[in-house]
Write a structure and sequence with these properties.
131 residues, mainly alpha, 0% strand, flat
């Protein structure tokens, strides 16, 4: 092996060494911060401190509460269509570029088709009804 090949390989791996060193320093910094917090905090457990905190109100009843799933479904559908709009804006800019018209149009209709099938499935299952 020549000296030039060895120097190029060494320079290549020096970048990885620097990234590894920064990762080790980051983990060490977090570990020292958590350790210092554990050593310096006051530990005075009282019955009031061991209670579950509920916005300043004493807890009443059991810890389990019934939550309506439909709120999560609507939030999930919102996220899906927000991601859809994130993909539509770059597509609109690329669609105007020469040479990308037909291919990007077909790709976007395939993408919108998948979303439409998902929305149709949710509608057929009755997920979108608020009753």
């Amino acid at each position: 092996m020549t000296a030039a090949a060895t120097d190029g390989t060494t320079a290549y791996f020096d970048g990885y060494g620097l990234v590894g060193l920064m990762a080790v320093l980051g983990v060490l910094f977090v570990a020292v911060a958590f350790g210092a917090g554990r050593l310096l905090r006051p530990v005075v457990p009282t019955p009031e401190k061991l209670l579950t905190y509920e916005c300043g109100v004493d807890p009443v009843g059991e810890g389990w509460a019934h939550t309506q799933v439909r709120y999560y479904v609507y939030a999930f559908l919102y996220v899906i269509f927000a991601v859809d709009s994130v993909f539509l804006f770059p597509w609109a800019t690329v669609f105007a570029a020469p040479g990308y018209g037909a291919a990007t149009l077909v790709e976007m209709f395939v993408f919108l088709g998948f979303l439409a099938v998902g929305l149709l499935y949710a509608w057929k299952k009755g997920v979108l009804e608020w009753t």
